[in-house]
């Protein structure tokens, strides 16, 4: 009974922290309508030889299931050093449009390559994922400019199975994460992404997740000619729907239902 109460209090505390952080972020940003993120993923779980991979397509809309303006197509390969440490090499293509004039073509396209380390912690009921990523990004804008940028990302993701001790078939779970985006050149603190959602793993292959994400972009404060311009932030709340299909593989260990994005 004591252990059950502890788990309930822990979940309630995490949810309260998530909502508090959400209000803190949206207080920095102007009110905006809800957007939509749709994510479809195919995964090859690691097996006895420790190699795996994924492919993903993603679409985003400025409104609730309307005004689509952005898409991603990406994939990569992974290698398990052991159960708790995974290396990934991946890349993708990203395109941003004016949702009012989709036929005019993208405003910009981006080709991205990244290297990644994931460290997992498996407790009795609580699962943590630490994700470290370094990105190389090549842009092509409509005006013909082709800048290059790099970025560092860190994400702490928490999974809480609700009706089982592990995330397996017929398991409902909570997922809560916060991710920071750092620019080596500046502004150093570029973006924050906060997510909370619920998911259900039907069997060894199908997983669905429904959640909310607040993505806030930051412009650095500056002092120029005696004028101080404070930190500016623009953010948006989004509905997230994710569907994952895992290819069958024998002797697959427990895998967290993480989103590669």
UniProtKB/TrEMBL annotation:
It comes from the Bacteria. This is DUF2490 domain-containing protein. Residues 1-24 form the signal peptide. Pfam families: DUF2490 (PF10677). InterPro entries: DUF2490. Keywords: Signal.
């Amino acid at each position: 009974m004591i252990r059950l109460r502890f788990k309930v209090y822990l979940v309630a505390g995490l949810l309260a922290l998530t909502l508090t952080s959400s209000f803190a972020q949206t207080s920095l940003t102007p009110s905006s309508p809800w957007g939509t993120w749709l994510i479809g993923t195919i995964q090859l779980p690691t097996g006895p030889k420790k190699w795996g991979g994924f492919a993903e397509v993603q679409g985003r809309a400025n409104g609730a299931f309307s005004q689509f303006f952005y898409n991603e197509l990406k994939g990569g390969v992974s290698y398990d050093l052991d159960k708790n440490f995974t290396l990934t090499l991946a890349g993708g293509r990203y395109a941003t449009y004016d949702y009012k004039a989709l036929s005019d073509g993208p405003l910009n396209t981006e080709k991205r390559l990244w290297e990644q380390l994931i460290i997992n912690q498996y407790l009795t009921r609580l699962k943590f994922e630490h994700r470290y990523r370094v990105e190389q990004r090549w842009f092509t804008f409509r005006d013909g400019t082709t800048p290059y940028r790099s970025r560092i990302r860190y994400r702490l993701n928490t999974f809480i199975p609700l009706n089982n001790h592990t995330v397996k078939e017929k398991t409902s779970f909570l997922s809560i994460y916060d991710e920071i985006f750092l620019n080596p050149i500046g502004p150093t603190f570029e973006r924050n992404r906060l997510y909370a959602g619920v998911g259900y793993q039907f069997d060894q292959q199908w997983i669905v997740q429904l959640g909310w994400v607040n993505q806030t972009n930051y412009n650095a404060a500056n002092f120029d000619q005696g004028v101080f311009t404070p930190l500016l932030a623009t953010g948006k709340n989004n509905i997230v729907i994710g569907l994952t299909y895992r290819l069958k593989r024998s002797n697959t260990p427990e895998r967290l239902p993480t989103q590669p994005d």
